[in-house]
Every structure is written in structure tokens, then in C-alpha cells.
Write a structure and sequence with these properties.
This protein is mainly α. It has a single domain, classed as Amino acid/polyamine transporter I (Up-down Bundle), CATH 1.20.1740. Helices cover 76% and strands 0% of the residues.
């Protein structure tokens, strides 16, 4: 009873704050929401049961490592916003004079890689949407989930071809506020659960199910997709100045990182035996039930809206990038049916764990290329301090991103 009361009070208070006119009118908040919405999908809901099943309490360390890695990769994107964008515009003086057109070509190739990553991530988001929806309805079934995902993909493809996706864009603003309010309510309920367990003397640390080995590291690498999304600030040049985009990307990564780590720390108390999670992507529903029964319904609703808004956003992003990379030879409207078709093929040829890992690899490929771009920009752009250390750092990050592409594996690969 107390847990449910805490959930509803926190949900109402957070929603009132997030939808307040003063906050929604703030340019800083609007520029923060875009990357924040992409980072905080249902990824942490999925990653918790997957990592806890394999690593026990060390799942917190694994998630902290992923958050830190994502922040460093974000540093390369931020560097490119400040120092690379002036070089990528047509007839940039430095590129024209030095003939370094290859740098602009590398940037374009990275955009193509991101478009492909968006293709896959749309499938990732909708696969999770179907899984949570059917779990919430009490009718989980792999074939039914694939069918639901297929229907939604057909709808997105048709809507994009016939009318564009602007009619669905309005969902995103409300979905972001809803899912953040649900997350705040879940964290508040878990705080109460931890306090209650500490008072009763039942608070405990989850045991490590098995020794950590190279396979476990590869599983963690395969979950990079759950902390991606910050790169969207890179493509808001028409709406916000570079300094604001850099600052708000940091805010989004700080806030999302704090939420991820706090959630992992607090949810551990609700797990008695990590083996019962069975690597189930929707296992978080059973974990949160002891904190407050109302969370089960709210998590399902929040997950569905979060995944739908993220899928729509990435569909729009993929369509726009394809149009840009192809020099408008392929219009964004014609890209949406292609996105839907590829998504349907992925849905029926892969399971949810494979899709998660494939999406991680695709985004890691984009980050790998962006780190190479950052290293090149650091060597060419004017007014860059600590040039040599930056180049080395970006190349090291590129190597780590490449390791995700090569070594990341799905949960079932362990």
C-alpha cells in the first residue's frame, strides 16, 4: 500500500514539473530532451535482468562501465560539434586549401553508418515494445511478438510513404515526460523498498551466479545500444548553436547515467536469485512487483510509449540521413518503406537478443567512424589545444568502439 502511494505521488509531482510551461519553454530543456529521450528508452529495463542474470551484483559495475564509455564517446561527438562542423560545410577554407576532402567523405560515410544503425534500432525498439505489451497483457509468445512488430512496422512504412511521420511526432514530447515520470516513480518505490528491507533486516547483496570471464565482457559490449542516443545532439545544428548542443548533451548523459546507475543499485534488493530472471528481456516486471504492484502496469505503459516514440524518432532520423547522404536522390518518404521492410526481415530472422546486439554493433560502427573523424579534425582544425593527446585519445576510443563491433555477442551467446 505504501509503495503504491509513493508511486502515485511521485508520478503526479514529476509529471507536473516536466509538463510545466516554464520548463517546456526553456531552450536548454528542449535541447536536452532530444538526446535524453533517445538515451532513456526501455534499455535499462531490459539490461537489468540480462546483466543481473549473468553478473549478479557486478551488473552495477558493468552498467557504470557502459555509462562511462558512452560519455567518452559523447566527448568525440562534442568535439566534432565544436571543431568539426565548420570544416564539413561546403567550400570550407581549410579543406579547400589543403585538399582534405577525404575528411568530409569520412564524415558522410559515418552518417550512412548511422542511418543503417537507425534501420536496425527501429526493429530493436519495436521488438521490445511488442515484448512488454504482450507481457503486460499476460500473453507472451515469440511468434505473437513478431506479428505485432510486423504490423507496427507496416504502419510506420505506410504512414511515412503516404503522409510523412509528422503526425506521429507529437507523441514523442508527451512520451518523454511520461516515461521520465514513470522512472521517477519506480526509483522512489525502490528507495522505499530498500529502506523497508533494511529496517526488517532482509536487505542483501545479490550473489554472483558464475565467475566473470571474457564471454561476460562480450555480453556487456553487446549492450552498448542501451546507453546510445546522445549522438542526436550532433544533428540539431539548425535548431540550436554548437555550445548549447554540447552543454545539453552533457546534461542528458549525466542525468541518464545517474538514472541508470541508481536504478541498478536500488533494484538489486528486489532480486533474491538472479537465475530466475532467465535472461528474460521483460524480467524487470517481476523484479519491480515487490516494490509496488502498480508499477507493473505503469512500466508496461511507459515502455510501450517510450519504444514507439523512439522508433518513430529513429525512422525520421534514418529517412533524413538517407536523403542527405544520397544527395536527395532518395527522398525521405521513400526511405520509410525500406526501413519497414528491413525491420520485418530482421524481426523474423533474429530473436530479441540478436537484435539488441546487432543494434549495438551498428551504433558502435558509427562511433568508431566519428572517433576517426575527431582524430582527423584534431590534427587539422585551428584553435585545438592539446592536439597530440586528443588524437591519441580519439584513436583509443575508436579501437574500443571497434571492439564492440567485433566482439559484442547476445545474451544467449553465453
Amino acid at each position: 500500500m505504501t509503495g503504491n502511494l509513493i508511486v502515485f505521488i511521485t508520478l503526479a509531482a514529476t509529471a507536473a514539473f516536466l509538463f510545466s510551461p516554464r520548463l517546456t519553454a526553456s531552450p536548454v530543456w528542449r535541447a536536452t530532451v532530444t538526446p535524453l529521450a533517445s538515451i532513456i528508452g526501455s534499455g535499462f529495463l531490459v539490461s537489468f535482468p540480462l546483466l543481473t542474470h549473468d553478473l549478479g551484483a557486478y551488473a552495477v559495475i558493468a552498467m557504470t562501465g557502459l555509462v562511462a564509455f558512452a560519455y567518452l564517446l559523447g566527448g568525440a561527438i562534442r568535439f566534432n560539434i565544436l571543431h568539426g562542423e565548420p570544416l564539413f560545410v561546403p567550400h570550407a577554407p581549410l579543406l579547400s586549401k589543403g585538399g582534405e576532402g577525404w575528411l568530409r567523405s569520412l564524415e558522410s560515410i559515418s552518417h550512412l553508418a548511422l542511418a543503417l544503425a537507425y534501420f536496425i534500432s527501429v526493429t530493436y525498439y519495436l521488438t521490445l515494445l511488442s515484448a512488454f505489451l504482450l507481457e503486460g497483457l499476460g500473453t507472451p509468445h515469440p511468434l505473437a511478438a513478431k506479428a505485432v512488430t510486423t504490423v507496427i512496422l507496416i504502419g510506420i512504412g505506410a504512414q511515412g510513404l503516404l503522409r510523412g511521420l509528422h503526425g506521429l511526432e507529437s507523441i514523442e514530447e508527451y512520451a518523454v515526460g511520461l516515461k521520465l515520470a514513470v522512472i521517477a516513480a519506480a526509483i522512489a518505490a525502490l528507495v522505499w523498498l530498500n529502506i523497508d528491507m533494511a529496517v526488517e533486516g532482509t536487505w542483501h547483496v545479490v550473489e554472483q551466479p558464475k565467475p566473470i570471464d571474457w564471454q561476460s565482457v562480450r555480453v556487456v559490449l553487446g549492450l552498448l545500444v542501451v546507453v546510445q542516443g546522445f549522438e542526436t545532439s550532433r544533428f540539431l545544428a539548425g535548431a540550436y548553436p554548437p555550445e548549447l548542443r554540447v552543454r545539453t548533451m552533457r546534461y542528458a548523459q549525466w542525468l541518464s547515467g545517474a538514472i541508470y546507475i541508481a536504478f541498478f543499485l536500488l533494484a538489486m534488493a528486489a532480486v533474491d536469485d538472479p537465475s530466475v530472471l532467465n535472461g528474460d528481456a521483460t524480467g524487470i516486471i517481476a523484479v519491480l512487483a515487490p516494490a509496488a504492484s502498480s508499477l507493473v502496469v505503469l512500466i508496461v505503459i511507459g515502455a510501450v510509449f517510450a519504444q514507439l516514440s523512439a522508433a518513430v524518432a529513429d525512422s525520421i532520423g534514418a529517412g533524413g540521413l538517407i536523403e542527405q547522404v544520397t544527395g536527395q536522390r532518395i527522398g525521405h518518404r521513400h526511405a520509410y518503406p525500406v526501413i519497414a521492410l528491413i525491420g520485418i526481415l530482421l524481426t523474423w530472422s533474429l530473436d530479441i537478443f540478436d537484435v539488441i546486439t546487432l543494434a549495438s554493433r551498428a551504433f558502435a560502427l558509427f562511433y568508431f567512424l566519428q572517433c576517426l573523424v575527431a582524430a582527423a579534425v584534431a590534427s587539422k582544425a585551428p584553435n585545438v589545444t592539446h592536439r597530440a593527446p586528443r588524437i591519441v585519445g580519439f584513436l583509443v576510443l575508436a579501437g574500443l568502439a571497434l571492439a564492440v563491433v567485433v566482439f559484442g555477442i547476445p545474451m544467449e551467446g553465453v
